[in-house]
Structure formats: structure tokens, C-alpha cells
Amino acid sequence: MSWSVYLEDRTQKPDCNYGIPPEEFKPAYEGDEPCNIPCYPTVGVARHSEGGTYAVGGIENAELNITYNYGREFGGAIGYQDGFVQWLTDKKAKDVVSLLRVAVKKLGTERSDNYWASTPGNAGHALSILLGWAEQYPEAIFRVS
Asked: What is the DSSP string of 35-77?
């Protein structure tokens, strides 16, 4: 199991049909339904192949799949009470930079050969990626699903 973390540009129009009144909705394909959650575009980042699942050759979108195994490490380093999803979702990137920086420093970024191992370095490496994106796009918004 894992979290999917996105850094979204919410100044752009959603990529989906969100906000279209039901009477004006025209399906684009069989089974298409009105979207009740906005699907904002992610910001562009340097090509990467990080996380628990990734595209061969990498992607250039701020999307990262992070194993739940790192949850305890994240909680200890960040100090949130309600869980990773609740802590990061809908936060403006600039508002979490300082906490991410402290967490990365505390955890380090030395990775294990086993991505799935709950080690400080594995968790810190994942957070360092989010930190880099947050510093690059301070006005973007995190979404975790």
C-alpha cells in the first residue's frame, strides 16, 4: 500500500470536467461521468523515476508514490498528530518547506538497497524529493491520495 503525492498548480483549470453543470455534461467516451473532485494539473519537474511505482524512463510531473512503510519515520521526524495525508493534503508548498527541511536533516537521505524497508534514510530521501519540489514551486498545493 502507498500514498500518491502530487504537487498541483491550482491556478490552472482542472484537467477534468469538474464544475460543468450536469445538464451541460457531454460524455467524452462510454462510461464517462461528471467529475465531482477537481483534477488539477501537476507542476513540471526534472525527469525522475522515484517511488514505489514509476514509469519506465521516468516522468516530468510532480507525482511520487510513497510506501506506507515510511509512515512511522515521517511521524517521528515531522511530529504530526493526524497522519501524513491529513498533514500534507491541501497545504501550500511554502507552508511545509521548513518542516520538510528539518525532517530531511533529522532522517538523512542515505537509502537502503531495499526501497520497502522503513529506514530513516529511505523516508528522508522521499521527503527530500517533496522538499525540492516545494522549494521550486512555493505557491503550488500538495494533494495526497
From this structure: -SS--PPBPEEEEE--SSS--TT-EEESEEEEEGGGHHHHHHH
Chain segment 31-89, per-residue pLDDT in tens:
888 888 888 999 999 999 988 887 889 999 999 999 999 999 999 999 988 899 999 99
Which has the closest alpha carbon to 77: 109, 118, 105?
105
Residue 8, strand partner residues:
42, 141
Q: Is the dihedral of CA 143, 107, 138, 136 positive or negative?
A: negative
Provide the residue type at 53 as one letter: T
- Phi, then psi, of 132 in degrees rounded to 5: -60, -45
DSSP state at residue 11: T
Phi, psi (rounded to 5 degrees) for 141: -120, 135
pTM of the predicted protein model: 0.89
The number of beta carbons lying within 10 Å of the beta carbon of residue 134 is 25
Question: What's the confidence (pLDDT) of residue 128?
Answer: 98
Give the pLDDT score at 140: 98
- Grid coordinates representing 46 are 526534472
For residue 122, what is the enclosing H or E element?
A: helix 120-136
